[in-house]
Amino acid sequence: MAVIIDKELCTGCGECLEACPFEALSLQDDKAQVNEACTLCGACEEVCPTGAITVPQVERAADERAAEARGVWVFAEQRQGAMPEVVAELLGQGRRLADELGVELSAVLLGHGLDGRAAELFALGADVVYQADDERLAAFNDDIYTQVLARVINEHRPEVLLAGATSLGRSLIPRVATAVATGLTADCTGLAIDPEKRLLLQTRPAFGGNIMATIICPQARPQMATVRPRVMKQGPRQEGRQGRLVPVELNPQDQARTQVLEVVRALEEQVNLTGAEVVVTGGRGLGQPEGFALVRKLATALGGVVGATRGTVDAGWIGHAHQVGQTGRTVSPKLYVALGVSGAVQHLVGMQSSDNILAVNTDPNAPIFSVAHYGIVGNLYEVVPAMLDRLAELRGQGA
Amino acid sequence: MKIVVCIKQVPDTAHVRLDPETHTLKREGVESIINPFDLFALEAALRIREQAGGAIVALSMGPPQAAEVIKEAIGYGVDEGLLLSDRAFAGADTWATTAALAAAIGQMEDVDLIVCGKQAVDGDTAQVGPGIAQRLGRPQVAFVKAFREISGQRLVVERQMDDGFDVVDLPLPGLITVVREVGEPRPPSLKGKMRAKQYRVPVKGAADLGLAPEQVGLAGSYTQVVKVFAPQATGERRVLQGSAQETGAQAVDLLVDNQVILLGS
Ligand SMILES: Cc1cc2nc3c(=O)[nH]c(=O)nc-3n(C[C@H](O)[C@H](O)[C@H](O)COP(=O)(O)OP(=O)(O)OC[C@H]3O[C@@H](n4cnc5c(N)ncnc54)[C@H](O)[C@@H]3O)c2cc1C
Ligand SMILES: Nc1ncnc2c1ncn2[C@@H]1O[C@H](COP(=O)(O)O)[C@@H](O)[C@H]1O
Question: Which residues of A touch B254 (CB under 8 A)?
């Protein structure tokens, strides 16, 4: 299936070719032509000045779930007793969505030894907590987590379910969405409500972060999304806020087939890039592996962690775990410092949603400057020591 | 051991440049390639076959020209290929994609292991692997970064997590998705390349998979893209002027003033 082009209306202006993210359009005899690469995303329809392009409407079977489902849910991921920051962010965003829809906000908590955990979720905005506390949920295994989560969803029928786009979330949630037969949007950076249709408008970067797409799930419920950490704002914390705790029992036959033999926590080389507030990244501009000592020094001074480009990882200057970008980690810290990083698109996609980007590069034309909020054209071996001096100076004054 | 590797054809973002003015992609001369993560999936499958024996099938869903990636996979040393191609598949979201891929794997006999890449670089969803596992009712481990044990009955793998990694025992038949740490892809072999030239890629459509048109492609998708737009550049962009001394100090001052850096108490 592909978009429909009205050859009479098409003027061959080529606007649609520019707009198509999938190279699905070409000009033939001065008329736009579409090929199999078309995904019906509609980017061309939007830019066509003469209205020559239409996206065919597909009739879908009505799904009675859309009319009945109510409530916003958040998957309260926890691992070994630790809850990632993103859960608080999801509750903050979930609260806003629930209020807009006029429904309750619920959190689902799976694990073992969860006593007292629900209070935290109530304080962060949950009205209800569904809690499955069982030995079999102590370690994360996709299949048993899926069984339990899908069962609670099918029983209570929420209209929206949000989870963190963490390693655990992105492993589990696609399975759950498949189990309950609904759509899922990955790694969202924006969520809003269309109040009339009660639809969740899910916005996410696609195509390497160079286009944004807004996605809906019109028929099936719940409307599910994984949400990028550090994008949504946490709500106010209300100590002692009360809610309803609903225990969830496992069935005797619920059993994980995989078995977690060992959990290895963040060692020095297992950097928690995803959760870091500050990331200081070194690129090949460091010139030599020893350059990372300076990167580490600045990272320590700023209370952050060390990132790296693929160039430096491939050169063996630093471990894989530090790599930011398309084949590394995606980060969006409060501050991202890029030192001697050229800013190849594969690197940019992993960091361009950072709140503040500072780049130091000797080449004024380096693409990193197109995303940097603060650009310094200069030698990092001169600029970084100046930054460290100034930091020490300011801190000395403060003491 | 019979292994299926799922590979996707994607546009090559390595040659894509950002237009600094409009902040959009410049796509002139962009070619199609195997999704980079799927090269790691291929490499993982080849290593497993080296240890446990057996055969590898490369599976892809896409337009007719996606036969190219199957041929490439033959070049890397996989035994067979299968392309799922049908006009009805166009516009598929991950739900409709896994419908077709899982149906195709379901038709194959005695598949012990399915290997997917971590994610496809065009959509970046990372949803297809777990979706296939669920449809086929198989256990899975996503984001595998290393193998500790490989046999016909089970794999013991290291699974990458945000705060470290887990060592997980996966009984077969099962599915894994892999990250780049599983190992650098080897280059295609000469013998493989020769074979790839001759290889005729088998193709199946929706009907061959026993799927109705409304179960696949756009019609079979739950999600719908309603808007596509260029990302908004957030905040002001400025290049600091002066010597290294001045700009370094100025950057710190600006970050402190804007409360990006907290000096602490
Ligand atoms: C499929 C694929 C996936 C990829 N995935 C990733 C990924 O996940 N992450 C990633 O980072 N890359 C990735 N890459 C690689 C990417 O294309 C670039 O090659 C890489 O990011 C470049 O690293 P770099 O900026 O360190 O090096 P370079 O491009 O060599 O840039 C070094 C920069 O340092 C500057 N410089 C030199 N000396 C100094 C100095 N003294 N002071 C200040 N500046 C200086 C130079 O002007 C230059 O701009 C991928 C590539 C492909 C093909
Ligand atoms: N059309 C496809 N054909 C074959 N494999 C695919 C296809 N789409 C996705 N995959 C596999 O699923 C993985 C994750 O893709 P995605 O969920 O699209 O990010 C990829 O790395 C591939 O291994």
Answer: 374
- Top-confidence residue, B24 or A109: A109
Question: What is the token pair recorded at B54?
Answer: 């057996």
Q: How many CB pairs under 8 A join A and B?
A: 324
Q: Out of B167, B180, B228, name the one closest to residue A42 (CB).
A: B228
Mean pLDDT is lowest, of A264-278, A311-325, B10-24, B164-178, for B10-24
The alpha carbon of residue B127 is apart from the nearest alpha carbon of chain A, in Å, by: 5
Task: Assess whether pLDDT exceeds 70 at residue A102.
Answer: yes
pLDDT, one tens digit per residue, over A114-151 is 999 999 999 999 999 999 999 999 999 999 999 999 99
Question: How many Å apart are CA B162 and CA B56, to the nearest integer?
Answer: 31
In whole angstroms, what is the distance from residue B216 CA to residue B91 CA? Answer: 9
Q: What is the CATH number of domain A9-54?
A: 3.30.70.20
A84 Cα–ligand 2 center, Å: 28
Tokens linked to A381: 């071996």
CA distance B154 to B150: 6
What is the rounded average pLDDT of the residues B225-241? 77
CATH match for A67-247 among 3.40.50.150, 3.40.50.620, 3.30.450.40, 3.90.180.10: 3.40.50.620
Judged against a pLDDT cut of 50, whether residue B24 lies above it is answered with: no
Homologous superfamily of A274-398: TPP-binding domain (3.40.50.1220)
CATH of domain B2-215: 3.40.50.620
Pick B230's closest partner by Cβ from A166, A211, A391.
A211
Q: What is the pTM of this model?
A: 0.81
Adjacent-strand bridge partners of A44: none
Q: Which residue, A96, A157, A121, is CA-closest to A243?
A: A121
